[in-house]
């Protein structure tokens, strides 16, 4: 057992060294939602001592610190923690083995750092169709029955094939009792809300996907659909196992992992040309079927929504000009664009928080019906807007300039490499729009706009300090001037004035000081 401090934060880990080979490869085990690193104890017995094995407590779990507000946590924080721990321990190119939340962290890490992972094993990977996410989130939140405690009895009954009262389940309850409920609830919400498909498709390393044959909490169907044609992925169903797969079948899983990581990265070529062609042709055929099916599922339709500089909507390249200034169509579509899958209750709470809920829902029925007509492809009955009972979502290929902009901001925020972060911010500012968002006088929208502006300003100030250290004052000034026109703030003005002073341009420093005072008076 060891504790290390990374950026002032305590991280608890156990590094078990191989007994026979000091040059052995390292396995990194990342635990699931309601446990800590001890949950891997049954697996260790069967993994043997041929490899170095690193286990660690996720932030806030076990004996590891969490230095962020729980409400602000993202999967990106956990991915960054893994990267910092591996760097601290000087572990290069490990085999990563993740379970539930740990699977999401492992896939995200392998996608971000493809050269730092030798192989990836993901167990009980959460992966749900986008239109089902809101209902699943609501279900998980209701499991505690209003109590601030982890629903252990439910997990014991639904997440494992072990008999009630089994010693391993008793240990699980002990681990769960030491987890702060708010942290558990946040991590569970991150888990069921995640969409790991993009990460998995981006992977370059061999990937083993393990799911229990009796899995009900994180069914593998959607994940299997998207990975069946990927050469780097292999999905194996574990007999008589459920979500707590490591506890249910540790021996079988250990054997699969040992066999998987022992295989060569590049399998030997198939010597028989006919058999080789059959293999390749069959995979191509399956890939084609899968692509065509997804193509049809998405209706092969495109919806482009622009809300950054001005509000515009295009269906299959044709602009829909009229009808947006009636029946809350514009703010309603903006909300659905940012929140691709939501519920009627959430829409009412966000857009009309001060209206009686029944009246808001009655109005919403009318507004959604009208918006559905606007988003119906001319000459067909296909609409991009789907109303499935309480759930509302946009289907098909939906693109939005604001969503793309927000994703670029988040990518730069989560980047841990200083050089790469600077490059990402440069790219963001090179394509900075002339204004942020079409004006919409809705509290939810104004809060979103404020948050994005604050995130942008933080990144620009970070970049300016980088260029200041590099004595590249002109680049920092150019980026600050560009940003202050879009998202003015006292911090940006003060940084500009300081940089003009550093550059020896006192005249411009005085001019921008006057502009700051004028802005401050408004």
From TrEMBL:
Domain spans labelled AB hydrolase-1: 26-139
Highest rank taxon of the organism: Bacteria
Entry keywords, A to Z: Transcription, Transcription regulation
Coiled coil: none
Protein name: AB hydrolase-1 domain-containing protein
InterPro entries for this protein: AB_hydrolase_1, AB_hydrolase_fold, AB_hydrolase_sf, Sig_transdc_resp-reg_C-effctor, WH-like_DNA-bd_sf
Claim: Repressor is one of the keywords in the record: no
């Amino acid at each position: 057992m060891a504790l290390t401090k990374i950026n002032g934060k305590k991280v608890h880990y156990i590094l078990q060294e191989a007994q026979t080979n000091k040059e052995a490869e390292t396995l990194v085990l990342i635990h699931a939602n309601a446990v800590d690193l001890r949950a891997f104890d049954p697996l260790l017995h069967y993994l043997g001592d041929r490899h170095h094995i690193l286990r660690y407590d996720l932030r806030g779990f076990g004996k590891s610190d969490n230095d962020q507000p729980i409400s602000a946590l993202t999967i990106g924080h956990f991915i960054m923690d893994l990267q910092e721990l591996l760097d601290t321990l000087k572990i290069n190119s490990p085999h990563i083995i993740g379970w539930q939340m740990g699977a999401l962290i492992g896939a995200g890490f392998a996608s971000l750092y493809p050269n730092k992972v030798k192989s990836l094993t993901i167990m009980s990977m959460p992966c749900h169709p986008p239109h089902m996410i809101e209902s699943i989130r609501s279900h998980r939140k209701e499991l505690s029955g209003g109590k601030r405690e982890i629903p252990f009895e439910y997990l014991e009954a639904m997440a494992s094939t072990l008999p009630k009262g089994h010693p391993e389940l008793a240990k699980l309850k002990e681990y769960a009792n030491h987890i702060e409920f708010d942290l558990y609830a946040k991590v569970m919400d991150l888990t069921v809300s995640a969409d790991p498909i993009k990460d998995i498709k981006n992977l370059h390393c061999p990937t083993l996907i393990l799911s229990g044959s009796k899995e009900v909490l994180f069914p593998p169907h959607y994940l299997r659909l998207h990975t069946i044609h990927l050469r780097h992925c292999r999905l194996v169903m574990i007999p008589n196992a459920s979500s707590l797969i490591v506890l249910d079948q540790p021996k079988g899983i250990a054997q699969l992992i040992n066999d998987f990581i022992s295989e060569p990265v590049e399998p030997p070529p198939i010597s028989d040309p006919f058999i080789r062609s059959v293999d390749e042709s069959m995979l191509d055929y399956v890939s084609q079927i899968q692509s065509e099916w997804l193509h049809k599922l998405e209706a092969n339709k495109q919806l482009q929504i622009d809300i950054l500089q001005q509000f515009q909507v295009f269906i299959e390249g044709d602009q829909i000009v009229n009808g947006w200034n009636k029946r809350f169509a514009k703010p309603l579509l903006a909300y659905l664009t940012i929140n691709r899958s939501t519920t009627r209750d959430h829409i009412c709470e966000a857009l009309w928080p001060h209206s009686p809920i029944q009246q808001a829902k009655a109005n919403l029925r009318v507004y959604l019906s009208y918006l559905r007509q606007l988003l119906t492809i001319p000459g067909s009955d296909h609409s991009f807007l789907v109303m499935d009972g309480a759930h509302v979502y946009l289907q098909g290929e939906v693109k939005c300039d604001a969503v793309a902009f927000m994703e670029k901001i988040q990518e730069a925020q989560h980047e841990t490499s200083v050089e790469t972060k600077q490059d990402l911010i440069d790219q963001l500012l090179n394509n900075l729009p002339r204004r942020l968002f079409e004006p919409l006088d809705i509290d939810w929208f104004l809060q979103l706009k404020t948050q994005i502006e604050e995130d942008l300003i933080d990144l620009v100030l970070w970049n300016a300090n980088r260029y200041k250290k590099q004595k590249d004052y002109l680049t920092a000034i150019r980026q600050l001037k560009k940003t202050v026109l879009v998202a003015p703030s006292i911090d940006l003005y003060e940084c500009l004035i300081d940089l003009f002073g550093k550059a020896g341009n006192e005249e411009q420093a005085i001019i921008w000081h006057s502009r700051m005072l004028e802005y401050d008076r408004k």
